[in-house]
Amino acid sequence: MRRSVYCGSHAPESTPMIWRSWSTCQICRRWPMPTLCEVCRRRHAALVPRCPHCAQQVGPGGEGWPNPHTCARDFAWHQAAARTDYVPPMDLWVKRLKFAGDWPLAHEMGRLMRECPLAEELRLQADWILPMPISPQRMIERGYNQAAWLARQWCGRDARVRVHWLIKVRDTAAQAQADRTQRWQQLQGSMAIGRAHQAALQGARVLLVDDVMTTGATLEVATRCALRAGAVRVDVVVFARTPEAG
Predict the structure, then answer these.
(1) Is the sign of the CA dihedral 96, 101, 103, 109 positive or negative?
(2) What is the DSSP letter of 216?
């Protein structure tokens, strides 16, 4: 008798686990497991309360529990959401997407973002969804824009995702070691909304998408670009947020 073999999402629930999850958990490396097994999901990707403005993690009792949370209220955007903190092992996922083009991880990251209630609320309310751009030089070096790929994995074929509306008009120095003030100075004049698309942003609600937020300076520059182009509100969603110092 010929035996049918199922793999992945097409397998019925009665199919043994070895056929339904023919992969390795990308954190604990157990096999056969989904890309993110349930044990690692609970340990490293649990949903936690976050400030709806700066996306920093806060305690279940709100701001000030257990440590005081000082929100950066000077951000120009309205609300921000993050799926996880930029800490091990999830920071490695961001790096693998950004520098190694790990597409299966991008799919899993998009799926995790769909579990974030505020991120989904902001996505549904947006008129346009704009991934953060990279410079032409970076595009030549990498061959892809990780923020655009992440937005596609999160939003699917949503027609509101516009990859080329927000553009990088000049390259900037590496930002890893710069503080917020230095980043802000380096980023001035580095982004713009394409002239052909500015009319579509008049009175619109815009959602910016990126892989990680560190100081928020890059997203702040992009937010101001969208507001100058005529957007009435800008929100931000990232996969990972660098925790506050201390």
Answers:
(1) positive
(2) S
